[in-house]
Design goal:
This protein is an alpha/beta fold. The protein has one domain (9-280): 3-Layer(aba) Sandwich (Rossmann fold). The chain has 10 helices and 7 strands.
Length: 314
């Protein structure tokens, strides 16, 4: 999916009202389905610990019930965490542990340079204007402040996407989008650079989780607040026969040796810094203190002496 470009009606991939409804419904029983949020929160907190910096004021962007607070090491020096979620009910849950508010990631209600760190765990994959949301996150940061985001990537639930499409085609003669499109790893670094972050780094993890059957997987996704919110989704009720066929195909294609099914979750980690004069910068062309040819013990030749592949030297 291409996230790059100006915000247009064609980029309204997600129904944000449905995103909020899904999260509102999930809030009350989220503790029964929060394993992925907890796991990734811990991994994000570990990454912050590796940086060996302190972050007194932190924004938890897309906080769900506020689980990130539990994972933060005291050595990070976090004194004040503000939780923010598009779901009012999640914001209320998070407020039991500290200040929290309901707001959109694309319209952050904070003054520039308000935070030492902006951290987002499993929320940004539902944003329509992801470049714009990243720009606003950077603007919220103090100079040399940290942005660290973890979002679902393109390999997530590829098994479920494929079997639902095939099942709908088999039963209804056509298929609509049922699982969110996700950003690809190769796009993420460009998004960070475009948003103005310095020293951007992007990498990923792939987690495989097993379930007894496809119905329990889909129930888990609803419990996470990750139900279908694609704007172009089929609006009419789906016959039960579609899901029965999908479960059958899933078991055939992705069944494990013990009779369960496997589901993939790819996590993209986006790390960058608000620009600051102290940060390392690339050297100006021609300013190097040593010649590359000397380091390689090679003979330097003018570029005109080298013929391009497939072409003769003039």
């Amino acid at each position: 999916m291409d996230y790059i470009g100006a915000m247009t009606d064609q980029m309204l991939v997600f129904d944000r009202q449905q995103v909020r409804r899904n999260r509102d419904r999930a809030a009350a029983s989220f503790a029964d389905h929060d394993f992925l949020k907890r796991e990734i929160s811990e991994r994000v907190a570990d990454r912050m610990g590796d940086i060996q910096r302190q972050f007194p004021r932190l924004l938890d962007l897309g906080c769900h019930s506020g689980l990130l607070r539990d994972s933060l090491d005291p050595r990070l020096g976090v004194e004040w965490v503000v939780g923010m979620d598009p779901s009012e009910k999640f914001a209320i849950e998070a407020s039991r542990h500290g200040p929290a508010l309901a707001a959109e990631e694309e319209l952050l209600p904070f003054a520039p340079a308000s935070f030492d760190a902006v951290v987002s765990v499993l929320s940004l994959h539902w944003v329509n204007d992801l470049p714009g949301a990243l720009v606003q996150a950077r603007q919220c940061l103090k100079p040399d402040g940290l942005f660290l985001g973890a979002m679902l990537g393109g390999e997530t639930l590829h098994e479920l996407r494929a079997v639902l499409t095939e099942a709908e085609s088999d039963v209804l003669g056509g298929a609509g989008p049922r699982v969110s499109p996700f950003a690809e790893l190769q796009d993420a670094a460009g998004l960070m650079q475009r948003a103005g972050f310095a020293l951007p780094v992007v990498d990923s993890d792939l987690l495989t989780v097993t379930y007894e059957n496809a119905f329990l997987l889909m129930r888990e996704l609803r419990g996470m607040g990750e139900g279908n919110a694609v704007a172009a989704r089929r609006k009419s009720a789906t016959p039960k026969s579609v899901f029965l066929r999908a479960a059958e195909i899933y078991q055939q294609r992705h069944g494990t040796a013990d009779g369960r099914i496997a589901a993939s979750f790819q996590i993209l980690y986006l790390t960058g810094w608000a620009p600051h004069a102290s940060q390392q910068k690339p050297l100006r062309p021609g300013s190097a203190a040593h010649r590359l040819a000397d380091a390689l013990e090679a003979t330097e030749r003018p570029t005109g002496d080298i013929a391009a592949p497939g072409r003769k030297k003039p």
